[in-house]
Every structure is written in C-alpha cells, then in structure tokens.
Amino acid sequence: MLREPSKVEQRYDAVIAVIRDGLAVSEVAEKVGVSRQSLYRWMARYEQEGLEGLAERSHRPAHVPHQMRAELEARVLELRRLHPGWGPIRLQHQLGRESAGGGVPSHMAIYRALVRHGLIEARGTRKRLPAYKRWERGRPMELWQMDVVGGLLISDGTEAKILTGIDDHSRYCVCAGVMARATGRAVCAHFVAALETHGVPEEVLTDNGKVFTGRFSLRPIEVLFDKICRENGIAHRLTAPASPTTTGKIERFHRTLRTEFFSAGSLFPSLEAAQAALDAFVVEYNTLRPHRAIAMAVPAERFATRTATTAPELALDRSAFDTDRSGDDWVSRVVSANGTISVSNQVFSVGKHRAGSVVDVRVTEGLLEAWCGAELLKTVLRSSKGVVRKKRAERQPTRKNR
C-alpha cells in the first residue's frame, strides 16, 4: 500500500537533493513546487536544527500592531460586566475618558472582544427602511416629544404608568412622572410640573391618545392637555395614526427605560419610592450619560445652550389646570374671523386679533364673562332670551398670539 510522504519528508528530500546530489536550487524548487527562497530557508534550518528544523511551524505573526492590549481588554470586560447595557461605542467612549494618552481601540475591536468572551451576541444590523428620515430641531425648547409608557411594577400589584418627555434637540429628559393610572388630570399634573421647572416650549409632539387630545373623538372636544397648551401658546402637534417613528426619540428613551431601569430593580414598595428611583435615573441620564445621537455629548450640555439661543420665556399660565371649567356654567367658543362669538343667541366681540382662537365663557344669571387663560377678555350683560348650549370647540388654533 502506497503512503503519501509527509511534509517533513518532502522537505528533507529536497534539501538532500541539493546538498548531496548537487542539483541546482532552482531546478529542485521548480520540481517541488516552491520558491527558491523557501528552499534556501529549509536548507538553513536543516543545517542549524537538523531534521526537526523542517517541521511545520506556526504562521502567526510575532507582533500584531492593531491587537488590543491585554490590560485594555480586561478593562473592557470589567466595564461590560458592571454595565450590561453598555455597547461597544459607549465602552469606547469610556475608555477614551479614562485614557489621557490615547491608544483607545476601535469599537469593532471592542465588539470582537465581547463576542470572544460571550458577553454579547453576534448579530446582524437591523435594516433601516429608506422611508425613515432622521430629523432634529435646531435649538432647545423648540419641541418636546411626550408619551405615556407602562411596565413599572409596584409591590401591591399595580402596574404604574410614566409620563415621559424629551427635548427634541438636546435629548434632555424634561419629564418623567409616575402615576397609578394615566388619567387626563394625572398626566397634566406632571406636564404642568415640567413646564414650571424647565419653562414653556414652543411646540409639543404627542400621539393621538385620549389623555392628550380629543380632536378625533366622535364629538371633538378640547381635553385638559390641549387647553393647557392653548392657554400657554404651545402648538400641540400630533403624529399620524400608526406612525410611532415620528416620535422616535421618546420611543428610544422608553427602550432605555425598559432595559436599564425596569429590569434593573425589583418591585417598588410604593409610587413615591418608584418616583425617587426614577428621578435618580433621570439625573444620571441627563448629566452623566453620553448620547450617541448628539456626538457622545451629555444631554444637559446641549440643553444648557437654551439661555443663549431662545427668546425670553413667558410665565406659565396654570389657570386651565387649577380652575375647573368643565361645569355647566362654562362653554367654549371659537372666535370668528371678525372677532365675535355667539352665546345664548347673543353676539359680542372679543377682538379680531383673536380670530380662530378658543375662549372660555362663564355663563351666570345676568352676565357673560369671556376668558382666555387667566385673562378676562370681556364682561357683557346676558339677555333673557335663548338657552346656552354646551358646546366644545371643533377647531384648535395652531398657536396663540403672543
């Protein structure tokens, strides 16, 4: 039975053919199928080490310039175990902050190290649909994105809700309020608190939830959230139905909440304890956590520029929240193009400059009072004829005249 000679035997035969038989190196190299340089190396190794020098050797390079140093790889693994939610880019940023002299590995090198040690699952990137378009407002306080998220568990079995708000330009969390149920008044309480803390934005973007708007109800009404926006000159923008990517920034914040806040702790003993823990998380998110979408800057750094770029902030009007205008003695009217409204078959003017806006009218036994927020526009004597019909505005103004 014929046996194929091993590599060591083939190399030995080639070396002997040159040394003992006196054949030319080029002739033997061509016969064996290697270069002349390889044959010369075999001959040198045979002279120095004998037959053992012809054995197969590792082709691994003695030095790899781009290989991560052992101490850096150990630090990467330590940071990943301490912060399971940190990805390669976040880890690279942290190494850059710790290393004053440079030498920070690439995020792909960090990714490969995490895969080697089983700290991250190798997976393909998600396909981005061509219809998705990234957009961002040019300065802070121009637009807030707001939404309600669930999943916060209390020890008594309650699944609490959170009203969240993100400044579109800076990704600064302006609102994170815990509530047992997402009712209109509970949502607006946190909304008003955020307005008092950070000021009044120019616009607010929400979905079409009933706590935010009643424009698409069977009978369109003005809910409390819409009224607060109207009386403070905030343009309330709504997303198109079934379009969650429009509020992509607040949805991405919800993903961070679920992975790093909800899953990190056990059941909270009370709503107050949950709010305290959430406040601490928001402080870290705003002041310590670099954000990839804003070039790894901290949201608080971008949000702080509002003092130099925005107009003077207006005082918050809380009258819609503090005063209940849903009783039988209150009605809402849209100001006509000539600046008039009609109540109880009685027409009176509130000014052409308010055309298209919504005003609240208090109906008493002998008077009609027209209010816009906390401002009393006009008081007229009520005629004895006509019945006041409870009617809500069907059209909302885009922005209140300031």
How many separate domains? 4
Task: Give the strand tally.
Answer: 11
Uncertain regions spanning at least 5 consecutive residues: 308-312, 391-402
- Summed up, the helix count is 13
Give the radius of gyration.
Answer: 36 Å
CATH homologous superfamily descriptor of the largest domain = Ribonuclease H-like superfamily/Ribonuclease H
User: What is the straight-line distance between the termini?
Assistant: 101 Å
Q: Summarize the biggest pleated sheet.
A: 5 strands, mixed
**Could you state the order of secondary-structure elements as H and E?**
HHHHHHEEEHEHEHHHHHEEEEEE
Structural class: alpha+beta
CATH topology of the largest domain: Nucleotidyltransferase, domain 5
Q: Globular, elongated, flat, extended or rod-shaped: what is the shape?
A: rod-shaped
CATH class of the largest domain: Alpha Beta
Strand content: 15-25%
* Strands side by side in the biggest sheet: 3-2-1-4-5
Helix fraction, binned, reads 25-40%
The CATH architecture of the largest domain would be 2-Layer Sandwich
Brief rundown of the structure:
Helix content is 34%, strand content 17%.
Task: Provide an overview of this structure.
The protein is an alpha+beta fold. The chain has 4 domains: 7-54; 70-116, Arc Repressor Mutant, subunit A, CATH 1.10.10; 143-309, 2-Layer Sandwich (Nucleotidyltransferase, domain 5); 324-381, no CATH class. Helix content is 34%, strand content 17%. It has helices at 7-19, 25-32, 36-49, 70-82, 88-98, 107-116, 184-198, 224-231, 248-262, 271-287, 299-303, 306-309, 319-322; strands spanning 143-153, 159-167, 173-179, 203-206, 235-238, 330-334, 340-343, 346-349, 358-363, 367-372, 375-381. The strands form 3 sheets. A 5-stranded mixed sheet has the order 3-2-1-4-5, sandwiched between helices. Helix 1 (7-19) packs antiparallel against helix 2, helix 1 (7-19) packs across helix 3 (36-49) and helix 5 (88-98) crosses helix 6 (107-116). The longest helix is centred in the C-terminal third of the chain and has 17 residues, at 271-287. It is rod-shaped and about 135 Å long. The model is unreliable at 308-312 and 391-402 (pLDDT under 50).
